[in-house]
Design a protein that fits this description.
With 467 residues, the chain is an alpha/beta fold. Helix content is 30%, strand content 23%. The chain is built from 16 helices and 24 strands. The radius of gyration is 25 Å and the shape is elongated. It starts with a strand and ends with a helix. Bound molecules: uridine-diphosphate-N-acetylglucosamine.
C-alpha cells in the first residue's frame, strides 16, 4: 500500500489538464454490452475503477482492450453470461451499472448487491423499482439481485427518492428501457451531465431517448443497437478539485478541458469566497490571493453543488475568514473527512447533515487517513495548504477515481511524493521527539518545591496544580 508525503505551503501555478469523467465512463463502458460490434471510447481515464469494471465486462463475455492511442475498445464476443460476481462488484459499487444493460439486452442479470460504503447508506431500491415497472421479475437471494424479463414493456416511472434523483439508477433504468416495447417515461430522472453523456451515446447507437438533461425522459423502445465511437465528457469533479486547489493554495491555475456549464454551481461558490474564476472556451482560469470569505454551501443533485465536491469545499472553508455551513442533502452522512481535517487544525463541528466550520488562518501538517475517494482529495488539498509536511494514508481511495492527480499537482508546483506505507518512510518532522512530548517545565517561582519523598495524596496535589 502507498501513502503520500505532501510538503505544503506552496502556491500552485501553471497549466493542468482534466481527463475524461469517471462517472460518465463507467456507465458508458457498461452500456457497450448492449451493442453489436466494437465500441470505441476516447477519454476513458486510467483509473483503478476502470480496471475493475473492465474485469467485470470481461467476465460478462466482452473483450476489453486499451489501444496504443489510449482509446478503450470493447467488443462483446459472448452474449450469454449474466453473472456479475461479488468478488468483483464488492471492489466498486458502480459495477451495478451492468444491471440495466444486461436485463435490456440479455433479459437476465444476476448482479451482486453492492455492500456498505463509507459515504453513507446506498440502497438500490429505486433501480429495482424502475426495472420492475418495465416488467422485470426481481428477487434478492444470497446477496445477489436476480432479474429476468421475457418481455420488457414501456411504463411511466417516477424515479425520485428521499434524497432526490439517482444517477446510476437513471442510467440503469434508461439502459433497459431502450429495449422495452412502446414508450417509457422516467420522471425525477437525474440531470447530471454523466447521464446525458450516456444517453447521447445510446442515441448515437440507435436508441430513441428524448429529454436528456431534464427530469423527464421519454424513451421509445428499439430492438437493436449498433456500436459507435464516443468521446467521454471532461471530468467536472476533477476540474472542481483543481479549481479548489488553486484557491486553497492561493495560487493561479489554468485548467484545460473543462465545460463551464457543468461547473456553474462550484464557480458560484468559489466566486463568493473571493476566488477569481474566468472561462475561455474549454479553459478555466482560477486565482486567489487572500483567505477565502466564508460561505454557506449545500450539496444537491445537478445543477446544484455536487456532493462529490463537498469535502474539497469543506477543506477550503476551513481556512476561511469566518464561519461557514456546509450541508450535504445527497449523502447526509458524508463527513468522514471532518475528524481528519481537524487533525490538520481545522475547527469543524458536525450537526446532522451539516458541517459548521469556524475558519482558521493556518493548518499544520500531520498524518491523516483517507476514508473514501473525495475525502482523500479534500485531505490532499488541505495538506497542500498546510504548513510543514503531511502524510496521507490509505491513498488507494484516491487512485480509484483521480487520474495521476499527484503527478498533475506536482506539474504545477506541488510537492507530493508517493512512497510505500511503511514507518521507515514517515518524515522526521512527523515523528515527535521525546523532548517535544514531555510536559512543559513548571515555572519554579510560583510552584512549591516538591517534597523529597512524596506521601500518599501529595502527588495528586502537584498534578492538580499543573492542570
Ligand atoms: C453517483 C456517483 C457518485 C455521486 C452520486 C451523487 C457514479 C459512479 N457515482 O452515485 O460519485 O456521489 O451519484 O451525485 O456515478 N438512493 C436511494 N435509492 C436508490 C439509489 C439512490 O435512496 O436506489 C439515494 C442514495 O442513498 C443517495 C441519493 O439517492 O442519498 C443519490 O444517490 P445516487 O445518485 O444513486 O448515487 P450513485 O448513482 O450511487
Amino acid at each position: 500500500m502507498d501513502m503520500l508525503v505532501v510538503r505544503g505551503g506552496r502556491p500552485l501555478r501553471g497549466i493542468v489538464k482534466v481527463g475524461g469523467a469517471k462517472n460518465a465512463a463507467l456507465p458508458i463502458m457498461a452500456a457497450a454490452l448492449v451493442a453489436e460490434g466494437t465500441t470505441v471510447l476516447h477519454g476513458v481515464p486510467d483509473l483503478v475503477d476502470v480496471t475493475t469494471l473492465s474485469a467485470v465486462l470481461r467476465s460478462l463475455g466482452a473483450h476489453v482492450e486499451r489501444r496504443a492511442d489510449g482509446a478503450l475498445q470493447i467488443t462483446v464476443i459472448d452474449q450469454q453470461p449474466c453473472l456479475a460476481d461479488y468478488e468483483l462488484v464488492r471492489r466498486m459499487r458502480a459495477s451495478v451499472c451492468v444491471l440495466g444493460p444486461l436485463l435490456g439486452r440479455r433479459r437476465r442479470a444476476c448482479v451482486s448487491l453492492p455492500g456498505g460504503c463509507n459515504i453513507g447508506h446506498r440502497p438500490i431500491d429505486l433501480h429495482l423499482k424502475g426495472l420492475r415497472a418495465l416488467g422485470a421479475e426481481i428477487t434478492i437471494e444470497r446477496g445477489y439481485v436476480f432479474a429476468r424479463a421475457d418481455r420488457l414493456r414501456g411504463a411511466d416511472i417516477y424515479l425520485g427518492g428521499s434524497f432526490g434523483s439517482t444517477v446510476t439508477g437513471t442510467c440503469n433504468v434508461m439502459s433497459a428501457a431502450i429495449f422495452a416495447e412502446g414508450t417509457t417515461t422516467i420522471s425525477a430522472a437525474a440531470c447530471e451531465p454523466e447521464v446525458v453523456d450516456l444517453g447521447n451515446m445510446l442515441n448515437a447507437m440507435g436508441a430513441r431517448i428524448e429529454g436528456l438533461g431534464t427530469p423527464l425522459l421519454r424513451i421509445e423502445g428499439v430492438s437493436n443497437l449498433h456500436s459507435v465511437e464516443h468521446t467521454i465528457i471532461p471530468d467536472r469533479i476533477e476540474a472542481a478539485t483543481l479549481m479548489v486547489a488553486a484557491a486553497i493554495t492561493r495560487g493561479e491555475l489554468t485548467i484545460e478541458n473543462v465545460c463551464s456549464a457543468h461547473l456553474a454551481a462550484v464557480t458560484d461558490v468559489l466566486r463568493a469566497t473571493g476566488t477569481e474564476v474566468h472561462f475561455s472556451g474549454s479553459k478555466s482560469f482560477v486565482r486567489s490571493t487572500a483567505a477565502p470569505r466564508p460561505v454557506d454551501v449545500t450539496a444537491l443533485p445537478y445543477p446544484g453543488v455536487p456532493t462529490d465536491v463537498q469535502a474539497q469545499l469543506t477543506a477550503l472553508l476551513a481556512l476561511a475568514d469566518g464561519i461557514s455551513v456546509v450541508t450535504d442533502k445527497v449523502f447526509p452522512d458524508r463527513f468522514m473527512h471532518i475528524p481528519e481535517l481537524m487533525r490538520l487544525g481545522a475547527n469543524i463541528r458536525r450537526e446532522g447533515a451539516s458541517a459548521i466550520i469556524s475558519g482558521t488562518n493556518r493548518l499544520s501538517g500531520t498524518c491523516v487517513m483517507a476514508s473514501d475517494l473525495r475525502a482523500s482529495a479534500a485531505l490532499l488539498l488541505a495538506s497542500l495548504a498546510a504548513e510543514g509536511e503531511s502524510v496521507i494514508r490509505r491513498v488507494y481511495h484516491l487512485d480509484r477515481g483521480y487520474e495521476h492527480l499527484e503527478r498533475k499537482l506536482n506539474g504545477v508546483g506541488g510537492d507530493i511524493q508517493r512512497v510505500a506505507d511503511d514507518p521507515a518512510n514517515m518524515p522526521d518532522s512527523l515523528q515527535l521527539s521525546a523532548d517535544e512530548l514531555s510536559v512543559p517545565a513548571i515555572d519554579s517561582s510560583d510552584t512549591p518545591p516538591p517534597p523529597k519523598f512524596l506521601r500518599r495524596g501529595e502527588s495528586q496535589r502537584i498534578h492538580s496544580h499543573v492542570d
